[in-house]
Amino acid sequence: MLIVTADDFGLHGDVNAAVEQAHCDGILNAASLMVSAPAAADAVARAHRLPGLRVGLHLVLADGWSTLPWESIPDLVDIDGRFGDAMVRDGLRFALFPAVRAQLALEIRAQFEAFRQTGLTLDHVNAHKHFHLHPTILGLILRIGRDYGLRAMRLPREVGGAVFLRPWLALLRRRLERAGIVHNDFVLGLSDSGAMDEAAVLAALDQLPPGVVEMYLHPAVTSGARIGASMPDYRHADELAALLSPRVRAAAERVAPRRGGFTDLLTA
What we know:
Number of strands: 8
Strand content: 5-15%
Oligomer: single chain
Strand order of the largest sheet: 4-3-2-1-8-7
Radius of gyration: 17 Å
Shape: globular
Helix content: 40-55%
Structural class: alpha/beta
Low-confidence stretches: none
Number of helices: 10
Distance between the termini: 10 Å
Order of helices and strands: EHEHEHHEHEHEEHEHHH
Largest sheet: 6 strands, parallel
């Protein structure tokens, strides 16, 4: 089974427009929602118009906006409510300091609650920049997610991926399976993040690994820093064009006639 997902749903109106277009006219099955991003309300409105679009929670704990105000989580965000991008430093703080960890739990719960308030069905959960690979974050997601219908998560395991990630991926997989959380077997798009153009997508589909595969992209109708300051080199518009490509559609139908979201996997 192939799941084709757009990350950063809600980040910008141009992302939301691309998600709708790629779902209606292309091969996009799912989207991961940033519940506190600037265009989140527009994303939710579009999702309610698209009952076939499977929407999950894209937890933001780095390089993005918090749901709770600075006063509630002062050790996590700046006064404007933004997380930094020093993920190694923050990962150590999450693991070592109980007070910081308590604030992290509050914010994760707030993001799950914000998703619940959208009225959308929770298809899956993942974290911005794959921060759910961090054992402390994963443990909180699994514990808190039980209260919000968590049933599926992304395993960011790429064929031939970085060797240093393998122990973390193995730990993530074991913990998901022990908790009864459904996950994909492989991802496509990790090495080419921001550059999943038609050629890259066709090449990925040509070497599709067996099992449940999630291919994730970052489509938008415009590209680069306009969408996000941390993505100046991302070719968002090229990724949208790939999702709309007749050649990509034909290839997907040939190699993966069974497609959908995690909800469809659970139903099957």
